[in-house]
Amino acid sequence: MLTNTNMKNLLPRLYFFSILITLVISCSSDELLPFYSDETNQPGRVTINGYSALSDSLQISVNDKIIQINKDKKTAFVKKIEKEYDFVYFGSKEKTFSIINKTTKEVLHTYQFNAQKVKDTISFFAKENLWIDNISRIKIGVLSKPGNSGYRFIFPNQNVYSKSGYTGDIDGIIRKINGQVLGTVENINKDKFSPFIEFPFSSPPTILMELVKHGTTESYVPGQKIIVIMTMSINKSKLIVLEEKADTNGAFSGVDGTLNLTDYFVFK
After folding, report:
1. Are strands 65-66 and 107-113 parallel, antiparallel or unpaired?
2. Could you tell me which residues come within 8 angstroms of residue 34 by beta carbon, excluding any fewer than 6 positions away?
3. From start to end of 30-180, where are the E strands?
4. Which pairing describes strands 95-101 and 252-260: parallel, antiparallel, or unpaired?
5. Contacts of 91 (CB under 8 A, 6+ apart)
6. 3-class secondary structure for 80-117?
7. Torsion angle, CA of 237/241/242/245, rounded to 10 degrees?
8. Is the CB of residue 166 less than 8 Å from the CB of residue 220?
9. What is the DSSP letter of 125?
10. CA-closest candidate to residue 79, choices 268, 263, 209
11. Is the dihedral angle over the CA atoms 148, 188, 53, 206 positive or is it negative?
12. pLDDT in tens, 147-198
C-alpha cells in the first residue's frame, strides 16, 4: 500500500518520466541518431598519383568539394600530381573522389572508397580520348639478360577513329627494317597490358610492329595494313600505350606507339 510519503516521492519521478516520453515521441529519428548511433568514425587516407597530358588543368573533388592539392592552397594541377589526402570515414558512408576538367567541368573519372579499406590509392594517366587506370598495379617486364629491349602494350582507344568493327584481342608482329621477325606479342587489348616480350637490341634501332587480329595475319582494320613505328632502347623495358590517330578532318590516320608510361612513373 502506498503511503502519503511514498506517493510524494513517486510523483516527481512520474512527472520526469512523462516528460521524457513526450520528448521521445516528438523527436525525429534523425535527431536521436547522434545520441544512439552505433557508427564509428575512423581516419582514412587516399594516396593520389597521377599524370595529366590534357591541355586543360584538372581538379579533384571529394563528395563534391574541391580539395587543395598542395601547401600553396592551389586546387588545380597539370602534368604530375602526388598527394596524400587524409579525412574521416563516418561509419559506412562512402567517399566519392571525382577527377574533373577545370575548364569544362566534365567529370572524367570517379572512385568510391569506404571504411572497409581505410588506406587506398588513385593512380591514373589522362590524355585526350585516353584514360589508363590503376597505374600503381602495373608490372613492368623484367629483362632476362643485359643487352635486351623489352615491351608490354595496351591499346585503350582501339576503334575510336578506325571504327574497324573488330573488338577482339590484337597481336603485334615485330620486325626489323630488313624484314626479320623479332617476335610476336599476343593479346593486346583495351583493358590491361599484354604479356611481356623481349629481344636483343640491334642497330639501327627502328622496329616495325604490324597489328593483326589475334591468331591471324589479317589486319584489324579491313583493307589497311597497320604498322606502328618504334625505337628500341638497350637494357630498358617499356610500357607502350598504342593510340589511334586522326587527321585534321577526323579520319583515321594510323596508330602511334611513342607513349611510354615509364617516362612518367616509377615502377617497382
Report:
1. unpaired
2. none
3. 41-52, 58-62, 65-66, 79-90, 95-101, 107-113, 119-127, 130-133, 148-154, 170-176
4. unpaired
5. 37, 39, 40, 41, 115
6. EEEEEEEEEEECCCCEEEEEEECCCCCEEEEEEECCCC
7. -140
8. yes
9. E
10. 263
11. positive
12. 999 999 999 999 999 999 999 999 999 999 999 999 999 999 999 999 999 9
Coil vs helix vs strand at 31: helix
* pLDDT single digits (tens) 224-265: 999 999 999 999 999 999 999 999 999 999 999 999 999 999
Q: Report the DSSP beta bridge partners of residue 112.
A: 96
What 3-state class would DSSP assign to 73?
A: coil
Contact 123, 80 (CB under 8 A): no
Give the list of residues 6+ apart from residue 236 with CB closer than 8 angstroms, or none. Answer: 149, 150, 262
Sequential DSSP letters for 183-201: EEEEEE-SSSPPPPEEEE-
Residue at 166: amino acid letter: Y
pTM as predicted = 0.81
Whether residue 204 has a cis bond before it, omega within 30° of 0:
yes
Q: What are phi and psi of 90, to 5 degrees?
A: -100, 95
Long-range contacts of 70-77 (CB under 8 A, 24+ apart): 76/102, 77/52
Question: Is residue 238 classed exposed, middle or buried when 0-12, 13-18 and 19+ CB atoms within 10 A define those classes?
Answer: buried
d(C-alpha 51, C-alpha 54), whole Å: 9
The identity of residue 62, as a single letter, is V
